[in-house]
Every structure is written in C-alpha cells, then in structure tokens.
Amino acid sequence: MLVENRLAIAKIRLAYLLCTVLPVVLVIFSLFEGGGWAQNVLGLWIAGALLLVYGLMNYLGLRFIYYSDEEKGKKKDFLVFRHYNIHPFLRKYMAFEIPKKALVGFQIHKSFGGFKRSITFRQLTRDGSVFDYPPVSISALPQAKVNQLAHALAEQVKDNQKGRTQGQ
Q: Per residue in 76-132, pLDDT tens?
C-alpha cells in the first residue's frame, strides 16, 4: 500500500508562500500608502491574520509523508516511511525503514482538537526489546489517508503477532 500527500502539500506550500509574502506587502503598503486610517488598519489586520495562519501551520508541523510496504527489489521486506518538513526554509529530509516482521505496534496521537496528529512506530529489536521511533507529524495527511495508513499498519502488526505466536 502506498500512502502519500503530494497534492495536499502543493496546496500548503502555496499557502506558506501567501502567508509570508502578503503580510510583508500589506504592511509596506499600509505604512507608506497615503490612504485613510481605516485602510491602513485593515491592511495591518489582514497581515496579522495571515501571520496567525502561518504560525498555526508551523505549530502543526506539517510534513510531506510517503509510506510504502510495496517496495521492489531489496526493500520488499521493509516498511518505508519518508517525511520532511514542508516549510520552505527549514526542510530536512528524513526516512526510516522497518523490517516488516519487526513492527510490533504504532500509535496515532491527537492534540489541539484533533488537528495536530502524529504517529509513533514501535519496532522489535534483535535483543528482544522494543524501540519507539520519534513521533512524526501526520497533520497534513487527509483523514482518509490516515485511516488507510492505520489500517495497513494494523494488518501488518496483526500478521506479525500471528507469526510470533505460531513460532513459539
């Protein structure tokens, strides 16, 4: 199964651009334009609202997400999860691969009224302990994609539990 949010990311990048450029233009226009007091205040209020939206997007930690359990070739036995921050200036590419048989669980965390969502993967290590990956924001994933991801991971965890109980 492949889960990604490429289309949503394109729209969010446009929103980032608008929320960074428009406030600067509005503030400059409001300060140097000879218009009336109401026009200047309106421009500053709009700029403030756009900066508030910008701050909200940064708080949510919006990320590009790519999840696949269908990799070809050498990676066919791995779950591949790639992500990066979509902020235009703070981009850092991250990825991890989990052997399919080592996935023992995952947890989706919700906060801020369900708008801020993150996922944590749990992997069984070679020595038998459980390793928790750092949480990754999935706030930019639409709910339908979050459900697909959760379903695919739950199926993998269920298959792994069956295999472990049969192997004992």
A: 788 999 999 988 777 889 998 999 899 999 999 999 998 999 999 999 999 989 999
pLDDT in tens, 9-37: 999 999 998 998 999 888 888 777 766 66
> What is the distance between the alpha carbons of residues 13 and 28, in angstroms, rounded to a whole number?
23
Q: Position of tokens 């969010």?
A: 12
CA distance 157 to 86: 29
Q: Can you read off the two tokens belonging to residue 4?
A: 């990604």
Angle of helix 6-32 relative to helix 37-60, nearest 10 degrees, comes to 150
Please, is 34 exposed, middle or buried when counting C-beta atoms within 10 Å of its C-beta (0-12, 13-18, 19+)? Answer: exposed
Q: What is the pTM of this model?
A: 0.82
Cβ neighbours of residue 133 under 8 Å, at least 6 residues apart? 96, 120, 121, 122, 123
